[in-house]
UniProtKB/TrEMBL annotation:
Protein name per its UniProtKB record: alcohol dehydrogenase (NADP(+))
Sequence similarity: Belongs to the zinc-containing alcohol dehydrogenase family.
Every Enoyl reductase (ER) domain range: 18-351
GO biological process: alcohol metabolic process
Catalysed transformations (reactions): a primary alcohol + NADP(+) = an aldehyde + NADPH + H(+)
Gene3D superfamilies from the UniProt entry: Medium-chain alcohol dehydrogenases, catalytic domain (3.90.180.10), NAD(P)-binding Rossmann-like Domain (3.40.50.720)
Gene Ontology molecular function, alphabetical: alcohol dehydrogenase (NADP+) activity; zinc ion binding
Residue intervals passing through the bilayer: none
Gene: ADH6
Subunit structure: Homodimer.
Length: 368
């Protein structure tokens, strides 16, 4: 049997990539209930750049109708019989992954985000064919391994965007050695970038350089912990930074707009350029000679593990990492995704679940 017979939840879905900003309330079947599953009633969901790539078809034709959203927080309303780490009523969150194989080397070594059989939070299918739908909705069901406990010091709405945007930069910062004495560059100060600046400082980096394509975000970047602000326009922006950085995390959501070769010159010997952004188009081409002068290494990074999510949230609470958010009711999802596409959000939209209308509580209730 596929989804639990009779179980129907609701969410805001896109039906057609040409109408990617037109959301419609649909009913959907959650995945089949299994022993380790946890159901969370959603209170807030962040709006990630990846939601926009998916609903616009930038990464290919999605599974439609599609409910996006993978920065999900709320309270646990049901736990499967084998769940041990959560109980009904707990605060809990889900990021961009809801399942994996649990058996492969990445799964067994706290790198489950690299499982070749992982299931993304939306635009994905479970092995039995159940469709995974995201957090612009009433509830989410996920395996315990992909449900994060949330620190009580941080407000739910501020935690939501950390579960994808925060984690996606925290993981490569840590895996590439950010700490005291290190010099880190962050390219693109958006949802991901505004956390990258803060987490780089929170991890103890000595210098954190914000690279942005205009001067608009200078004051914010400095407030977020950047020690320096560099506008990436112009031919010689990289000149004063040659050889100065150990690591660059690139979150800029454009392909040809990324001055890749110039940025690489800012790395010291064997410095790392880590791409976390996934623009629709390929990266600019690069001649291998451009990697030789400093022996630079180019890599990528995909979200983060549960272990890293827990460590990130602990650090965020301890070092008072702030989420700069703009709250909107979930019904305004269309407006939120348009503003992400326009690059005008400072720095993350978070959708708040509110009942669809006060006159329809019975049909709006996600589970009676
Ligand atoms: N690897 C992963 O696992 C993972 C996880 C989540 C998201 N992502 C990807 O990461 C990227 C960023 O996501 P996000 O949510 O942070 O998006 P976002 O809030 O829209 O931020 C992207 C930033 O890119 C820069 N940018 C946008 N348009 C530009 C242009 N025309 N020229 C130069 N720079 C431009 C802007 O920074 P400035 O204004 O400062 O230049 C903007 O703030 C997306 O591609 C998303 O799909 C990847
Ligand atoms: Zn995301
Ligand atoms: Zn696996």
């Amino acid at each position: 049997m596929s989804s639990q017979a009779g179980e129907k939840w609701k969410g805001y879905a896109v039906r057609d990539i040409k109408n990617w900003d037109k959301f419609e309330v649909i009913e959907f079947h959650p995945k089949q209930q299994e022993d380790y599953d946890i159901d969370i009633k959603i209170e807030f969901c962040g709006v990630c750049g990846s939601d926009v790539h998916t609903i616009t078809g930038g990464w290919g034709e999605p599974l439609l109708p599609l409910i996006p959203g993978h920065e999900i927080v709320g309270h646990v309303v049901r736990v499967g019989p084998k769940v041990t780490s959560f109980k009904v009523g707990d605060r809990a969150g889900v990021g961009a992954q809801v399942c994996s194989c649990f058996k492969c080397a990445p799964c067994k070594s706290d790198s489950e985000q690299y499982c070749l059989n992982g299931v993304s939070t939306y635009n994905a299918k479970y092995p039995n064919g159940d469709v995974a739908q995201g957090g612009y909705s009433t509830a989410i069901r996920a395996h315990e391994r992909f449900v994060f406990p949330l620190p009580k010091e941080l407000p739910l709405e501020e935690i939501a965007p950390m579960l994808c945007a925060g984690l996606t930069v925290y993981s490569p910062l840590v895996r590439n050695g950010t700490g005291p004495g290190k010099r880190v560059g962050v390219v693109g100060i958006g949802g991901l970038g505004h956390y990258a600046l803060q987490f780089a400082r929170a991890l103890g980096a000595e210098q954190v350089v914000a690279f942005s394509h205009s001067s608009n975000k200078k004051d914010d970047a400095l407030e977020l912990g950047a020690t320096d602000f560099v506008i990436t326009g112009g031919d010689d922006f990289a000149e004063p930074w040659k050889g100065k950085l150990d690591l660059i995390i690139c979150t800029a959501d454009v392909s040809h707009g990324i001055p890749l070769t110039d940025l690489i010159t800012t790395l010291g010997v064997h410095g790392h350029f880590i791409m976390v952004a996934i623009p629709d188009e390929s990266l600019p081409s690069l001649h291998s000679a451009q990697l030789l002068s400093n022996g630079a290494l180019i890599g990528g990074s995909h979200i983060g593990s549960k272990k890293e999510a827990i460590a990130m949230l602990e650090l965020a609470a301890k070092k008072k990492v702030k989420s700069y958010i703009e709250l909107l009711p979930m019904k305004d999802a269309g407006n939120a995704v348009r503003r992400v596409k326009d690059n005008s959000v400072r720095y993350r939209h978070v959708l708040k679940y509110v009942p669809l209308s006060s006159s329809s509580p019975p049909t709006d209730a996600w589970c009676a």
